[in-house]
Records
---
Amino acid sequence: MHELTVAQRILEIAEEKARDSGLSRITGIRVRVGSLTTVVPEALDFCFGFAREDTLAGNANLVIEEVRAEARCNSCGIVFPVEQSFFLVCSSCGSSDTALLKGTELDLLSIEGEI
Amino acid sequence: MKQVKVLTKILAANDMIAAENRALLDSHGICCINLMSSPGAGKTTLLEKTAQMVSGSISLGAVEGDCATSLDGERLSAAGIPTVQVNTGGGCHLDAGMIKSALRDLDLEKTDLLFIENVGNLICPSSFDLGEHHRAVMLSVAEGDDKPLKYPGMFISCDVMVLSKTDLVDKCDFDLSAGKQNALRVNPRLKILELSSLEGAGMREWTEFLEKLVEEKRVEKR
Ligand SMILES: [Zn+2]
């Protein structure tokens, strides 16, 4: 359950940012999770639910923006979705000279709260 | 109500410590491999055999991560590898902070190649940068040749795959070429090494590979 670690990190950063911005309470947190991170959004939401107790985000709502992985082919130039079974191989020309563009994000985007 | 834009990497604290670990290892010319697999793939046995084979040419060190017990750590120490045991207390992965403390207990001056034997798990460990130079995933033929497709996050994060227990391939429902193909579909850049720690097949290629990595680090430090 690395989602618990991730939820705790989210809360630590959110509390620090809330204090910096003079918020006394956090009501919402928005994060971005790429499909290659091995962080399962449902599990993260579940862990967040109990990790938030006794923090400034005691009742906060977690919004998870999911990002689907995409790669660019260096041979033919197309941008293609990275599917479950054909990961970094170009879906158009079959080249494996590809560069990952999206999918590894694990970011805290914003917090919302009351002063 | 106030909205504050933050835009911070959630694992930034981990990544910062990982970068410090990497810099510390670099300053000592140590090559570090983060070895990951399901439980029971044969990580500890591989390291024991590796120690026998490179004895006298490469000085090994190990950080042994387990949820509980120091059984594997004791095996590595008995094999002559200076080992620091890290228990995660139920946690499913090692993080950079744990490695930072473990590095304090190792004699870095006397280490050429450091193995981090991660907690047995094909999901969580891949999310955490520990400061290693290479990530190796071990897949045993006892597990199924579709593992790379089921756990792509792990296989995509690695640069090396060790296909282990090849002596058992006839007894297992594992198609060697399908296993390798599946891994390469997920990550065409994977270097694949096949071996049997017990019977020795492929072990020479493995230790030659390690010697090359160690030599690269030595040259880099000079
Ligand atoms: Zn292409």
---
Amino acid sequence: MSTARASETRAAWLFISPWVLGFLVFTLYPLIYTGYLSLTDYDVINDPSFVGLDNYHQLVQDPKVRLALTNTFIFAVLSVPTQLVLSFLLALLLNRAGRASGFFRTAFFLPKMTPAVAIGVLLLLLFNGQNGLVNTFLGWFGINGPAWTTDPNWIKPGLVMMSLWTVGASVVILLAALRSVPQELYDASRIDGAGFWRQTRHITIPMVSSAIFFIVIIDTIAAFQSFTEAYTAYFGSGNSTYSNDAALFYAIYLFQQAFRFLHMGYASAMSMLLFVIIMAVTAIQIRVSRGSVYYESEQA
Amino acid sequence: MTSTDTPAPRVPTLAVAPAAPVEEPRGRPPAPARPKLARIVIWALLAVLTVAFVYPFVWLVSASFKPRSEVFDNKLIPDHFTFDNYLSIWHEAPMGLWLMNSVFVTVLATVTVTISSACVAWGFAHFRFKGRDALFGVVLATMMIPGAVTMIPVYLIWDSLGMTGTLTPLWAGNLFGSAFYIFLLRQFFLGLPRELFEAAKLDGANNWQMFTKIALPLTKPALVVTALFEFQASWTDLMKPLIYLRDSDTFTVPRGLKTLLDQFGFGGEWHWELIVTASVITTLPMIVIFFLGQRQFIDGIATTGNKG
């Protein structure tokens, strides 16, 4: 018996060994090393030199860090709720679309397949102030659209609007959740005289709250790390030097500090701060959601 | 059973009946008051929204067939249809090389992560060993760690191995599996009936045979989902190519597209027709893959929200 146990353990570790190795080398060690690097000056060429908390002191005073943080917060606060509302509405409609829902679902999901670089390009083209499709469309209704891609006040709203194009995955997740709500709940409430809105408020939303919560968490983490679309559209790589402060997200500034200016120590301190912020925001969201999120498995 | 095991039965339902139409079973409410009218309104709304979601593609593709002066005219059918952009992009940039690099990286990344994640997931699903649940908790926890936190040391590791500037860092990390896929595949493995493996054991099958001959074939839908997810992630990635690649000859298509944008969009040359064409070339392979694996892809996404 005990030898069988031992051989089973041996086999198990053999199977999981790729992950164990990868975890040690590519997650645990980097986590610790980032912490260490954040206390040093390091330019890759010379050895890291210990500077204590200097990087963190600098971080607090760096106006660009403040700007990048503000930009990122604004983007998250604007994009996460709008994405959620839009995907919920789309899922509600799809849930009622009957046989055609498969077709529409595919159409909504399609943009999710677009490489983020191409989305950055599309952003520049579609939201172009003079002849972009969005302003042309607004023009039909007599609205004089703003210069989305050049006016600092409109760059973030433009990025948020563009981010709505890729809600497809959330729509699919919410639709699956909607489909798993027991029909009897609706039947019973209809007998009680509840209309569509009351059903949505008192049955649908509570019943899919775990999916909503999942999407909010995932989208928030993604928003705090958003990089590619804004970087593609508003920042140059290689010899191009164009940049736009209104689109300077935290991840972009971090990337520049690390791989453009080779301030690896400073960038490490920045990534530690990002880590703390994301953990804190996630913890707050979990806290706030407690009691208002319904999990089917808890009922069993 | 631990709490992480609870959602297990849900996922395998897909594995058993991947072809079953998802629309049918529930969700269609029994005849509301005015079913026809309501449905027409809903379809009309959905149709309008569909246009909003699909039109940017149509616009992009049509713009790629326009001469430079007409790129921004917002017409669906080009006044002067031209194939020149597709020809000149090949002269202006090593487009073929970029495509080959992308295919190379994406295929290797996909194959390695699928195999390694399946191995690890099987290790966690099939065997009982001390510390298993705690260790799996660590797997789940790593999903929460933002990539930015480990980015710099991981770069330094590849740098010390002399791998920066090559395509290796773009895929080789996948040899060690990926937490999300390990989680996903483990769910499927847990759904397989244990009796199957007990019978195989009596027939003298060893662990490796049980894994490759029984478990893997039965989890094919989940393996396809994993492969599709990774293909998408790998094909569309810009961050890693920005960090690791230097020479134009080693670029992947997203990295190449960014370079073209810097050169022809903001470099003062204003060749938007080339940028538009390169965007189509970057996007199209992904769209093709999507339509090939559409069902698995969408069902796979649908299950990821059910982590509960």
---
Amino acid sequence: MVTAITDRQQLAYIAGQAADARVNVEIETEGMTLNMGPQHPATHGTLRIVAKLDGEQVIEAAPIMGYMHRGYEKLTEVRSYPQVTTLINRIDWLGSFANEVPFILAAEKLMEVEAPPRAQWIRTVLFELSRISNVMLFLGDMGVQLGALTPVFFAFRDREHVLNQIESVTGGRFHPNFDRIGGLKDDLPKGWIEDTKAVMEKVRTFCDEMEDLIMGNEIFEARTRGIGVIPADVALSYGMSGANLRASGVDWDLRRDRPVGLAWDEVDWKVWTHPDGDSFARYWVRLQETREASRIVDQLLDGIPAGPIMAKVPRIIKVPAGEAYVATENPLGQMGYYVVSKGDLVPFRVKIRSASFNNISIVPWVMKGVYVPDVITILASLYFILGDIDR
Amino acid sequence: MSSSLLAIDLAYWQVTTIKVIIVLSFIPLSALILGYVFLLKMMSHMQSRLGPMEAGPHGVLQLVADGVKFIQKEDIFPDKADRFVFAIAPLVVVLSTFLLFVVVPAGPDIYVESLDTGIFFALAVSSLSVVGILMAGWASANKYSLMGGLRAAGQLIAYELPLVLAVVGVVIQAGTLNLQGIVAAQANGSMFGFDFLGNPFIITQFIGFAIFLIAVQAELTQTPFDMPVAESEIVGGYQVEYTGFRFLFFFIGEFGTAFAFAAIAATLFLGGWWLPGFDLDSNFLNVLGPLVLFAKVMLVAFFIFWFRFTYPRFREDQLQKFAWKFLIPLALLNIAATGILKVAF
């Protein structure tokens, strides 16, 4: 499968090099190694990209990660199941509630508990809210990486409303720690549903603004169209997921294809894909997904069933021996927890599969022969959170 | 005129010293005005930013706070920097701004120097900033700085050409290179038979005006042509190693040049200091002229900064293509059309 990939960019680059070499033997320049990062404004954290340059063209780029490795998989082995959620919502810190869900679902699967319908619906609403708050930042940040400063201020301004809604339910803006095995910590506060609907309206307005301000801009199109093209087969072979995969034309969304204990299949929504696989497609897909997520939230809010928010679970949670893998479609892509239990208070082993790690493993492949500014475009469009790479 | 100031006879060196001091003090003043009105006020309203509104009523003290911040910073030289070149580079950039201001007239008798080759001189000295930027980029001993400096050199040289060619149309129409002469030519023209309205060249030279504004953006290394300082790619480019006061010099150079170019654009295309309804050499215009010119400068600067806040950044190759394949042919066409029309009418 992997050998069948036609490495088009690389071949084109080599051909170009050969042609250049024939003409400009005397003015051939020395290669330059440029370290981008670990502290670089475009890497959103401590990612380092070692790029070998010929002038402004990248010959080779390798991401070097691990500067902020936090050992989460190991730390979970000394924490009881309820305590683990306080840790894991820090993995992707911009969509933190969404991180908690797959682990809780895996634990519930092992315990053979199911959260009551009301809890599931509220979970789904919060999941989508954290998706919106996460992707809104991307929509503004992409502009910054390309040199337009205004969108990110709009993004921060409007994202505040979404975070306020998350905060008024969970008490936390960044680290809600709200999910429990068997349900949720609390019920929704009064008037929350109406407020959230008003906020969803604002989110859609924000998406319209971004469409006008960024996607309608000729320079943005010139900078992103055809830049960092990832064909579907390459994307699949590198294990990419989420909007990055859908932007390569692969119609794959775990919310629809493998629904797990949440309420997505109760409402009417659509998976957006784009055939181009370039940076523009990745922006476009995420913009559509944000709109779609606000529609999902609106529909879910209309139909939240009444009832309890906690199932009957023992006060001291002991998970029966066994193993379970649950993955959900997180804001950045597929996030899965493989939990092995030996019947103790603590997990025996937890393997975390987070989206960003796989999504940026494409970097060495996609960055051959691009220009230095394109490195930034591609990094921005792949949209990773450093915490999601270094766990 | 050159030896008398306010009807007092002075020696040449005294007049020159006074002129130098006035222009030197005007550079930071113009940078402050543009920085306050556009960089802080207009930007914070456009971008919904709250920060620049906090210091003082409606944020009027923000620039003072920024100034204090810049002054108290440590003056750092990188280890392997070429110290002399590193230190002098910001001064070279500001020098180019200084020389630009020399030829801009603000009234019938208010000017530093009325050169017969005025606009030619202005365009020539504006390219001095390239040298300063290259010096800064090279002397910093930093790869980002070097890339920024080289990008700046490529960009500024490429955009000199459309800048010059955009002005040629005006020069053909006015029949002089002298900026005072260009103002007079616009004041004495007539529009639709109304003599008192004058004929600001923007009406006939709108293509030239557009090209001039675009090229000015590139000369100022501003968005969408801010590749040399692209903070998300090369972390500030040639400025990356500069701290405190030396960085402030680049900042003043950039905004002072923006003011100077806006003034030149206002003079070339909008009629300069001349106000319809006045005689060209009436003494009123010595008082009103600077205000009229200032209003026109702010109008042009508004456009310059509007682009800055709205657009993403071009890439190196796209930028060169835009200059060579689009702007320069367009400017040449404009010159040809102007020449034909000038001969025909």
